[in-house]
Specification:
2 domains, about 425 residues, binds heme C, about 30% strand, alpha+beta, outer membrane lipoprotein receptor (LolB), chain A, two-stranded antiparallel sheet, globular
Amino acid sequence: MSITRRLFAICIGLALLSLVVVGLEIRTTAASASNRVVPLFVLPDTSLKPRNREPAARRSWHRSIPQSPQTEKTIGEVRKNIQVLKEFPDSQLIPMMNLMSASLGVKCDFCHVAKDGHLEPALDDKPEKKQAREMITMTLSINKTSFNGRNEVSCFTCHRGRNQPVAVVALPLPEPAPRSGRGPGAAGPTAPAPTVDDILNKYVAALGGQAAIDKLKTRVMKGTYAAANGMTATFQVDQSAPDKFHITFITPQATMERGFNGSAGWEKNPRGVTDMAGNQLADMKHSFALFGDIKLKEQFTRMNVRKDKLDGRDVYLIVAATADGQRERLFFDAETGLLLRRATAVQTPVGVVPQETSYEDYRDIDGVKIPFTIRVSTTDPGSTATRKYSEIKINVPVDDASFNKPAAAPRAVGQPKP
Ligand code: HEC
Ligand code: HEC
């Protein structure tokens, strides 16, 4: 399971759905990428208003993550007017566009022409787009010639959330801050460092213990979804061990569903019913498998642990790698043992796309602790979203037939599952 794939999935696979929902059409083949859906359903940011938000600086913990084998089409093969990003997989295009927008603190229409609310990204009318193209070439070349091909320098390295980077040191210089926190000795008397197994065992115990987890057969969750771009929805997830799921996502405009019955995946939206396979299905299984955030050890081949801080709390940070070399950071509360955050960082030619999923408000449901608030932050404002559950039930009967692909009869607007 490639994190790259999953992360690149964020932007557009559901764009078809969301375009239906929000009515803004990007007149391109932008809907071709597969979709990672850590956010439940992905709704792109459609406001063309300029945005002046300072993205938080992030520590650079990632290093060259190997690219997954490129079986998919390249950007050059899929898009109309590509000059410098031709050779990269098409699933990376929109994540890179989001990353460039976030790095400069602008919206798509800073570089692209917008006509009647439609983006025309293939046109080269704006000088900003031409300059961005030169900047991409420059960034690729800096990394190639000065950093041995590692993606060390990104748009954000210079731009820091502004279209015009600051080149001159600001005066007065800040007072040197006292060294805080992370060095050896800073954490107090040296207790024996826990091992990865200690942390994971404590997590299982904190969740309710192995026996309660082994008894977990089904889960039904209802909640609300609110994205940073203002999009809201209600949703329901039905899951059955080990990996069946059925998600119903209801916005004021439409109902969308996705499911997997153990062998076949599908998607239903107002345009009809389609199969879901390959990367997209793998991504959904990762996000919605019943044990996705519970059985962690199985997902990684290498794990290391160290002490860290997260929002002022003492945490244990496990840096983990999958068999195909993708990295993930997992933050566990040092006191409660619960998982607080998972973070991935994925390389693209113009920089690293960070994504964080935070787990809050753990509640006990029949002996198993489950987070009732899940926050996802990405560089895509449409995928930066909070899921809040209003109701979670475990081990209740779930109709197995609901995981099967529904009949293909088209319908205007779907009904929520009873
Ligand atoms: C900082 C400038 C900049 C911003 C902001 C930007 N883009 Fe782009 N975009 C480009 C450049 C430059 C290219 C062409 C790259 C090349 O020639 O290799 C491009 C190409 C594209 C293409 C391919 C067009 C084609 O068919 O040839 C799409 C689609 C696209 N952008 C969508 C978006 C979206 C959606 C956003 C907002 C999330 C966005 N872009 C934000 C600079 C930008
Ligand atoms: C090494 C530092 C550096 C990097 C890396 C960098 N830029 Fe820039 N960029 C600048 C500077 C400096 C300017 C201002 C140049 C000027 O005023 O003529 C600028 C200007 C721009 C402008 C024009 C802004 C405007 O207001 O018209 C765009 C668009 C842009 N950069 C896009 C990008 C993109 C996209 C990336 C990543 C692919 C990137 N830059 C990476 C330094 C950088």
